[in-house]
Amino acid sequence: MTPRLDRKVALAALCLVAALVSFTASAEASRPVIQNVHVCYRLPVDWSGAPYPYDDTSIKIKAVVIMQWRGQTRAYTNEIQQVNDGKWYIVGTDGPYSPNPTTRFTTFPTLSQATYPTIYKWPAQQNPTFSWQKRQHKCYYYCDPTSPYEPYDRKYHYQTAATPAWGWGYSGTPPDGKGVMRYRVSATYGGVTKSSQDKEYATRLGVRSSSNFGLTEEDEYHAYRKKYLRWLYAYWGPDGVPGYGVVYEWRGVWYGGKASATWVGGGGGYEGYGIDCSGYVSACARWAGYGWTGGTWGWYYNTTGLLNVSKGVTQDQLEPGDILLKPGTHVYTVVQKHLPNVRVISAKGETGGPKVPEYSRVVEQTLVLADLIEDGYQLRRLVPASP
């Protein structure tokens, strides 16, 4: 082979290698690559400013895959292409205490409209492989010798409670009845696996009860009491299964659910991870439309202030939706009355924080009414601002 021919062969080989490298690079650039995946909650109707995912009729739980493809990073689901309407409520987003008690419902953590103005239909024939987890959370205490406050910090810990086979997600009646529900998803495509965040700041699925609690139209304030009782269960966790209901936080007054918070103890104010007994009553009364205006932020009353928005009832008059109030100490809401017992629900804990997380949360109990009365509890009925 002549030198000139050698050079031609070598040049052709180099050109072939360059072409192959270019083709490979082009193929790599056009290959879809998962960047992230989110759990998003969607309501089937426009609530016109009402809070995000609380529903007792229908809910949509979706995986939204963030994928880089052909030089663009976009959000994808298995649904038709649609404009991001700002109501894809996203799990794992830190932000203000949401919904903020001073701004009502304006600070929701959602899939960014600026970053993802359009949500596209998944373009590939092969879908990602999804793995869903229903998550159980507990709030543990542990000794922290470096803490300048009390020697216990408070953090969430998550563990898997179930593994539903949902694919891109779930749509229909709430899958687990009433109460607090949290979910996580992992997506695998092209050998890459991404998982949604485990820290849920405030976005959770809180499902109200659909019960009428035995109330009829003849009962005083029946519509308010029914709504109030239903909202109470959006903070609840099943009895005997700790880690689903909203945890207790002294001076927690609104929503709770901040995963990244540590507890500084004492009168540190609202740190965003939980709710206390009077905050629980006040928040659910607000959801139910009681319309109070004279308390903190208008709607919030502590256990002493609740005397101003309630009236006394007798033992015979006591019904579901009424409260058992010991001013300055604690407040229960009656769910059922079967004398001598009453079934009650409350955000239960202690000022310093109980060391047993199972009882530091929204919980139901069966108690003896006479014992409560002897202990100083008053039988009272919440009164709406405009009956």
Question: How would you describe this structure to a colleague?
Answer:
Mean pLDDT is 77; it is low at 21-28, 47-51, 94-106, 140-154, 257-270 and 351-358. With 387 residues, this protein is an alpha+beta fold. It has helices spanning 3-30, 222-232, 277-287, 369-374; strands spanning 33-42, 59-69, 72-77, 82-83, 89-90, 118-121, 129-143, 152-162, 169-172, 179-181, 183-189, 192-195, 205-207, 310-312, 323-326, 330-338, 341-348, 361-368, 378-382. 38% of the residues are buried.
Radius of gyration computed on alpha carbons: 27 Å
Oligomer: single chain
Count of DSSP H/I helices: 4
Gap from first CA to last CA: 104 Å
Average of the residue pLDDT scores: 77
Which series of helices and strands comes N to C?
A: HEEEEEEEEEEEEEHHEEEEEHE
Major sheet: 7 strands, mixed
Structural class: alpha+beta
In short:
The protein has 387 residues and is α+β, with helices and mostly antiparallel strands. The chain has helices at 3-30, 222-232, 277-287, 369-374, and strands spanning 33-42, 59-69, 72-77, 82-83, 89-90, 118-121, 129-143, 152-162, 169-172, 179-181, 183-189, 192-195, 205-207, 310-312, 323-326, 330-338, 341-348, 361-368, 378-382. The protein is elongated.
Topology overview:
Elements: H1 3-30, E1 33-42, E2 59-69, E3 72-77, E4 82-83, E5 89-90, E6 118-121, E7 129-143, E8 152-162, E9 169-172, E10 179-181, E11 183-189, E12 192-195, E13 205-207, H2 222-232, H3 277-287, E14 310-312, E15 323-326, E16 330-338, E17 341-348, E18 361-368, H4 369-374, E19 378-382
Parallel strand pairs: 3-6
Antiparallel strand pairs: 1-2, 1-5, 2-3, 2-9, 4-6, 7-8, 7-11, 10-13, 11-12, 14-19, 15-16, 15-19, 16-17, 17-18
